[in-house]
Amino acid sequence: MTVLTDRYACEREAIDAGLRAAAARLPAPAARIAAYHFGWTDAAGAPTDASSGKALRPLLTLLAAKTVDGDWRRAVPAAVAVEMIHNFSLIHDDIIDRDGLRRHRPTAWKVYGVNDAILVGDALHALAFEIIAEAGGECARSGAGLLAQTVRALIEGQLADTRFEERESVPLDECVAMSEAKTASLMGCATALGALFGGGTPAQVEALRDFGCRLGLAFQHVDDLLGIWGDPAVTGKAVFSDLRNRKKSLPVTAALGSGHRDVAELARLYGGTGLLTESELTRAAELVESCGGRRASRRAAETLTAAAAGGLASQPLRTDAVEELTSLAASTVGRTN
Ligand code: GRG
C-alpha cells in the first residue's frame, strides 16, 4: 500500500508524532513494550525502523475530517486514539490466538510474556480515552462515547469469533455480524470521529461512519483471504495461521455453506481437534477455493467498497477529499499485506 506512505507522508508524520508522545506517558516498562510493538525499537530497546503497521484507521480519520471541509490537524488526537485502540486489540488478539508473529516480528507476548502484554494493551486502551478527553469540548464528549461503544463492539466480535471455533457450523450471516463487530466497527468509528472533529453535521458524521463500516467489512474479507493465500513474506504473519486455528473466517464460512460436493471433506478437516499437518492445511485451502469461498469473499469485498463510495453521494462533501478516501478504500481492497 505505497499510496499510504507516499501520498500521505505529512499525515503519517503527525500520527506517528502523536503516538510517540502519548506512549511516552506510560510507565517505563510499559513504554518499552509499546515501543517494541509499534516497531520503534527492537526487543533490547534499541531504535529501529520496523513496521508500525499501515496506519489505515488513523488515515481514514484524517481524510474523513477533510471531506467535511475540516482542518485535518484538529482530528489528529482522534486519529491517535483510534490507532491506540487498534493496537491494544492487536496485542490482546495475538495473546488470545497464541499468534507468534505480527508485522514480521515476534508478537509482544512472545517477547515480554503474556502478563506484561495484557497490561500494555490495557494501558493503550486507557491512553486512547485520555487523548480524546484532552481534546475538550463537545467533540471530546461524543467522541469518547463513540469510542467506548466501539470497544464494546470489538469485545462482542472477539467473543463471537472465539465461540465460533467451538462450533461445528456457523451461518454466513453470523460470521458477517461477527466481522462487523470485530473489524468494521472500528473503521466506522475512525471515519465518524474524523467527520466529528472536522466539524461535520450529524448527517455527515453518520454517512462517514457508514462508509467506514462498509469498508471495514470489505477489509476483513481481504484480511481473511490473505490469512489463507497471502504470502507470509509480505503479510508478516505465519502461513495458514487462520486455518491452523480452524478459524471460521468469511471465506471458510462461505465455503462450508456452499453446498458444493467438497464441503464434506472440508468440514471433516475443520471438525477435528488435533493439529492439522502441513498437507492438511494445503488441502483445506484448496477446498475453500473449490467450494467458492475465495471467489465469494473477493466479490463481497469489491461490492462493499463500491457501495461504501456510493453512499457518500448522499451528503455535500469536498470532492477532492472524497476522491482521496475512495482511492484509499480501493488500495485497501487490492492490498497484499
Ligand atoms: C477491545 C477490550 C477489547 C479487547 C480486544 C482482541 C479483541 C478484543 C478484538 C480483536 C479485534 C481484531 C484484532 C480484529 C482484527 C482486525 C484486523 C483485520 C486487524 C489487522 O489490521 P491491519 O492489517 O493491521 O490494519 P496493521 O498491522 O496494518 O496495523
UniProtKB/TrEMBL annotation:
Task: List, alphabetically, the Gene3D superfamilies matched.
Answer: Farnesyl Diphosphate Synthase
Coiled-coil intervals: none
Q: What GO molecular functions are on record for this protein?
A: metal ion binding; prenyltransferase activity
- A Pfam family reported for this protein in Swiss-Prot or TrEMBL: polyprenyl_synt
- UniProt KW keywords: Magnesium, Metal-binding, Transferase
Per the UniProt entry, what are the Gene Ontology biological process annotations, in alphabetical order?
isoprenoid biosynthetic process
Q: Does the keyword Metal-binding apply?
A: yes
PROSITE patterns with a match to the protein in the record: POLYPRENYL_SYNTHASE_1
The reply to whether Transferase figures as a keyword in the UniProt entry is yes
The family annotation for this protein states: Belongs to the FPP/GGPP synthase family.
| Protein name stated in the entry | Polyprenyl synthetase family protein
Which species does this protein come from?
Glycomyces paridis
